[in-house]
Structures are given as C-alpha cells and as structure tokens.
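One example copied in:
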Amino acid sequence: MKRVLVIGAGKASAGMAAAVEALLGHRISRGWVNVRYGYELAQDLVSIHVHPAGHPIPDQAGQTGTARILALIDDLEAEDLVLVLLSGGASALLTSPVEDVTLQDLQNLTGSLLLSGASIREINSIRKHLSRVKGGQLARLIADRGAQAEVLVISDVVGNPLDTIGSGPCAPDPTTFADAWQVLGHFDLIDTAPKSIVDHLQRGLHGKLPDTPKPDDPIFDRIHHLIVADNRAAALAAAERAGALGLHAMVLTTYLEGEAREAGLLVAALAKEIARYGQPLTRPACLILGGETTVTVTGSGKGGRNQEIALSAALALDGWEDILVAALGTDGTDGPTDAAGAIITGETAALAQEQGLDPRGYLDRNGSYELLSALGSLIVTGPTGTNTNDLVFVLVF
C-alpha cells in the first residue's frame, strides 16, 4: 500500500470522514466527501475536505464536488488504497451525468421520479445508466488504475443491497438499460422525460453503449464492502432503550415497504391488536418497525412518507385510547420538509376536526405536513448526521 485516499458521499459522510481521520490521521494523503447542505461538520478536518451539495435533487455543487473526487481518482497509482465512505443520499450527491445528458435534464427527471411512487431500486436503475460513477463505474475507475478500495457503508436501503445503496458506485450492477427503460415506461415518463435521456437509454437498449459492470467483472476483485450501520442496528438499539425504560419491546420487521398510507393502516392494525388482545406484546408495549415506504403524489399538498404514515394511522386509530404512533426518518428529514416525521394518538383526528380541519382531506391531497404542523404533532430534529432509513414506533400503554 502506497497511499491512503478518502472519498465519499452521503448524509453521514462528514461524520464518517471525521471518524476515519481520527483513526488514521497523517496516513491519509488526501480526501474529499460530498454531504447534504446542513450536514457539514462544525470544524474543518485536516486531510479530508467536506463539501456541501444538493439533495434529493442533484445540483451544480454536487457535480463540482464529484469532479474533484474524480480528479483524486485520476491521480491514483498502483497499490494505493481508497477508502470510500458511502451513506444514504449519495445517489444525489455523487453526480456526474453521462456526456450527452445535462445536469438540468437529470434534475427534471429526478423530480418526476420522486413524485411517481417508484421505489428506490427502480429510481436507481435509471440513475445508474445516466451516470459515469454509479452502478459499479466508480469501482472500475479505481481498479483500472491498479488501486484497491475498501467501501464503508451506512445503509439506508431495506435489506442492505450494495448495488442500491447510493446507487452502488462500487458494487456490481444487476440492472440493465432494459430495466431502466422499463421503469421509465411503467411510470409513464417516456413522453415527458428530457429527450437527451430518452435517446441515451434507447442507445443503450439497442447495444450501442456498454452497460454497467456486472457481478462477474474482475474489477471487483479489488473492491471490498463493509456495512458498518443499518436500519436493523438502529431498530435494535431503539428496542434496547425502550426495554431500559420499562416497556415490552420488539422489533417486528425492518422490511416495511409499500405506499405510506397503506403502511399507516398496518401500523394502526398492530396497535389495535396489542390494545385488544395483548399480541404480539403486552402493555406497556413498544413495537418497532423499520424500512422505507413510498408516496405516489397525486395532490398539491406538502408532506413526507413518515408524516403520511402517521396521518393515515391517526384516521384508523380515531377514538382508541392509550395508543401513540411515531414515524420518523433517522436522517432528520422526511420528504421535502423540515420535519423528521410525526407523532399521533387516538385523539389526533378528533383534535383536527375540533379546529375545523379535515384530516381525510389533507391525506387525500398529500398534505400531511400542513395538518400535523397545525396540531403541533411534527417531530423536528434538524440534520442528525446519519441515515439508516425510517423507524416507526407503536406504543400502547
């Protein structure tokens, strides 16, 4: 090993960079990580530059920062070691579109995908095929220079698939141009997507462009991944804390997915089961679910997936006593809002109606933020500096 370089992107990359620098100190030659605005460190690091950029819509700062990361890779020599610090948010923060696609084109499509209800895996299958670094292509750049990479990952994706976390810049990509094209078609985006993107995917679909590196590519012999934290670790830690507070605690699942409002109905059903029958926990109970839901935006309101879970659960739990549901994003941000999530009880829907607010109407137009803000039910933490996906707590007293 000649030199150690540090690169990375994600909401947790600043904290990860600080930890790495504290451990390795002067052994680090240079480093650069892209983080979301507001997720920077209070003090500058010595060897690693922390660069703020846009999320979830990529911006020019992200593209500029990624160019600096690529410049570090261009300078690699054989037997250098690259520490790649990867966490949730990297898909937007690590931005280097293919030559024929502009940043604005990418921004337009990203906005449409985020409103479509597409899963993170579906969105990332397109992102990978419009990028010079995602879908294993960063690994190829590192391996082609004879260097090695150790990829340290804080996962924000259900099940920890390495090809999906941050769009898998150093992982083999099982998706193809055909998969990306299918997603575009499935969500009726072919006619509205920028022409440059449609043309690029079409060229790849017809074999005129090389696809992303696949699992059998020898470049991955030089790349190693380590999951250092994930949703299950966060859920188990929460359960341990709940137990210490005297609650009967259980992690029910870390695979909560699907439409947020449907997940809210499930959460409410679990709460009723505990309240009525003492299953799967007796009172005082704390049931924990982890994962990541989606919202298909059809209305003009403002909200996030966790707030939508909470509002949906509030409607289903109307009139039930001694129940509390909290849904939140561990990164401190829920959708395009300043809230991490929300807390509701069996009284929330009635309180809204007493104030002349129609909770069903707000849910129907995806306006959970406005209603829950009016009720003082939002959870506002600010940036947490990490991202291990979402947690939902069902408490029955």
